[in-house]
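Researcher: Checking consistency across runs. Here is SBSPO protein again:
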Amino acid sequence: RRASGCAARGLCCPGRDSACLSVGRRPDGSTGPCYCDQACARTLDCCHDYAQACPVIPCVVSQWSAWSGCAEPCKTTYRVRMRHVIQEPRNGGEACPALEERAGCVEYWTRQGTECQQSLIPALITTGGFGKARKKRAAVADGSERAGYCVEFQLVAITPGCLHNHHSYTRWMHYLREGHTVCVECQHPALHSPSQHCYGDGTDSQKNQLLHWQAVGNHRCKGTWRRIRQLDTCSCPSVHSFLFI
């Protein structure tokens, strides 16, 4: 006697497959040709034991791996974590989810362990009014006043925390406004050797790259800006004038 049903013939076929054919009882109680392909559930011509012989098996994946390091040091880039397939889906089971996930990432150290260049390190800024006293102290300490430079930035985003300050020494943060151009002075002792740049000045940044800044004296006041240009002859206006720390 010819074997009937899916289990007896060892049939379980993906998709629609007219060759995935057996004989036996169908869901409507009749007997005759019946199918063991995935499409039979829709066409209602499965063999009586299709559901048992070809159970729906969803994809099973492993746990996520640990996050990798940044793809590249000293750049705004991404890190990766992976997982692998433990059980492939069968018989219309749920498809496998993504096996790779990426997240934004920045590393401030090179693979050799040295500090990155300045473009991605958040700039620490304070009011330009502080600079006069700092210049005087530097001149007394060195016997001369080192030449600095200024950088113009366009403010892109500012956190609300810049407005929520009540101390006299933080009032200067009210001058930070989105869309405004600000002038930030780099002078000794913030002028680092041997690079002769201030951290966060965007020297190595790409055109229109968003750079980060943080106001000294209020950790809730921070944001992003774009570097416009460097001014080697420094003449920042009294308002919208700031200092790298």
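Researcher: Does this match what you'd expect to see?
Model: One thing to look at in this run: Residues 118 and 172 are 25 Å apart (CA to CA).
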